[in-house]
Amino acid sequence: MSIKMVFMPPQSEAVKSWLPRLIDSIPDARFVSPGTAAQALEEIADADAAFGVVPTEALAEAGRLRWLQAPAAAPPAGYYSPELIDHPVTVTNFREIYNDHISIHVMAVLLAFTKRLPDYYRQQAAREWHPLDESRDHALFLPDSTALIVGVGGIGGETARLCASFGMRVIGIDARREDAPEGVFSLHRPADLNRLLPKADFVILTIPHTPATEGLFDASKFRLMKESAYFINIGRGMTTKLDDLNSALRSGEIGGAALDVYEIEPLPRDHPLWDAPNTILTPHVAAYGPYLDERRYEIVAENVRRLLAGEPLRNVVDKVNWF
Predict the structure, then answer these.
(1) In CATH terms, are 3-96+290-309 and 99-281 the same topology?
(2) Catalytic one among 169, 236, 253, 296?
(3) What is the mean pLDDT of residues 196-214?
(4) Which of 82, 92, 102, 258 shows its CA 20 to 30 Å from the CA of 75?
(5) What is the mean pLDDT of residues 201-206?
(6) 99-281 sits in which CATH class?
């Protein structure tokens, strides 16, 4: 048995570098990298597998297509089109490769809030020496605090383990997971979110953008949080209404926020969130770190071998729910 896999244009230099390795290591597969959209449309007609974005007109021609590797863990909005959902192709993604990098980013901002580093950064910029009150302003003690992690997949699970290692009590919410991973004190369903929000000192979002999560965190959710609680979103920006978050920060409904993803990216220069109180903003970089291209390659190579062997693919996506 052999298969044909098409790498849809355009491709990054890193992805292009995979082709010689795949050709050398998996001789039973034929790998094609067309240079133009027209060539890709022709090549995909008899392809068994593909990588990247397959336009609607190409899907209509892809009668043999059995596997599509998405180019990201959470591709841009619109990737899971009605045509792709209706097509019998199985889609896989790159989830699990960012667990360590992103969970460390979460802990970095969490610890920064715990030790009031945003306040001290502002003082440093102004060359001011004002130690905050030891008992009143540094009252957050991690072993006495609760983290609510919304989305306990690979990233959320690793974040839970790290939070627990600091003595924190971790509550998890997940739509699909049945077992509580290491570090999670109790695991709940999304329907329990409103009930659990008032218990958390840190609310950490790792959820993907799906039809069910779009705009999930709005004014109603922020009103349920403690006035001292911190909101951290490293999942997808479309899950959170930025104007509602800005209002909650400025009114004192919540204690602070750290965002790496945004409803609008890049965040406009004139958006009021830039100077909202007690806020840490990073430009969608939480996943940055070494070895990511190699991890992506390993998933692609493994799934090529699995497809050849007739075995279940790794990281299969629920196309209807986009993850």
Answers:
(1) yes
(2) 236
(3) 96
(4) 258
(5) 98
(6) alpha beta
